[in-house]
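Exercise: predict the fold of this chain.
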Amino acid sequence: MTSENQPIAAMDSLLQASKVNIIPNQEYLLQGSILDVQVQRLLHRLKGLCDNVETAPEQFHDYEACFSLRNIADEQAIHTAPLLLRVRRSNDPADSHMPWQLRYVGNPELGDTKRPTLVRSCFDISCSPSIMEFLTEMGCRLEFEYTVRGYLFRKGRMKITVSKIFRPMNQEPLSGSYLVELSLLAPVGADAVAEDMRVFAEKLKPLVILEKIDHRRIAPTGPN
């Protein structure tokens, strides 16, 4: 195969994988919070429940920025949700060689109220450090930015993060609690994983209550 044909073949493979639901483009998500004074108890419990219990949990220190892009025709429509894109990179000097990450997260699916987790479309793309400049030139607006420090655990395909959010300029914590997220990426239609997540979340009670949260209900919808 010639180098000219390689991108075409790769695109064909990607399209075929999408048609047969191989690509994990759905995020199943549960969220909660725990006070700073209780977080060590939660970390101890997670260490016992998750994989690789004999090792310390993976730690991370990242920077994240959220950009929005609204259709010009929809600028006057207050209730029209803009396209949101998140850019993330590691602040750890040991990870300086790692690419930046661009993430698109869609609106949650609200059809099945009995589903135990929130479900939304999710796409992650590796990119270069110039991604923020590129998004700005595309007309995207920087909505907010922050740094996050925390711990990462894994249980099979499930990912559990316990993280604290800081202001990027002075590293002042935004609250006296940690954000706890239980997530899993799976292809469309893999709803059985939601039940596995519900069972795991039950094991963390009463330290933390993980639930599906529709952020559109708590986010501002327009100017005051």
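Check your answer against the key: The two ends are 59 Å apart (CA to CA).
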